[in-house]
Write a structure and sequence with these properties.
The protein is of the alpha+beta class. The chain has one domain. The protein contains three helices and five strands; from the N terminus they run H-E-E-H-E-E-E-H. The chain has a three-stranded antiparallel beta sheet with strand order 3-5-4. A two-stranded antiparallel ribbon has the order 1-2. Strand 4 and strand 5 form a beta hairpin. Helix 1 packs parallel to helix 3. The structure holds zinc ion (ZN). The site of zinc ion has 8 residues, from loops.
């Protein structure tokens, strides 16, 4: 795995964590919640206060991620939206885009229903 793929995989792992947070927030009918920063620093444990609808905007594209202001990495991503509390960044390199699209949980086949 090369450096870009490693960083893309780190971000995809944080995205998986946030997908679980979004699911439990929906279940408890909450709205404002805290997601984890999806930057490529594997040691980053920062929380980002984001509403569920804001989070859904980030997840609209498989190549965009949620990061704290200042956590964007200029060499691998560009800021597409600055919301003050958080920023939405998009991967720029083709190799990283392929990796994060491949790892996007929303593109997997739908899970069987729980009923
Ligand atoms: Zn971070």
């Amino acid at each position: 795995m090369n450096e870009l793929e490693r960083r893309a995989t780190t971000e995809a792992l944080f995205r998986d964590v946030n997908e679980r947070i979004a699911e439990s927030t929906e279940r408890f009918e909450g709205n404002r919640t805290e997601f984890v920063c999806e930057c490529s620093d594997a040691a980053c444990m920062h929380r980002v206060p984001v509403s569920l609808s804001e989070y859904e905007e980030v997840r609209d594209e498989p190549t965009t991620f949620l990061v704290l202001p200042g956590h964007e990495q200029d060499d691998i991503e560009r800021v597409v939206s600055d919301r003050g509390r958080f920023r939405i960044v998009e991967k720029v390199q083709a190799a990283m885009r392929r990796t994060v699209v491949r790892l996007d949980p929303r593109r997997r086949p739908p899970r069987p229903s729980e009923s």
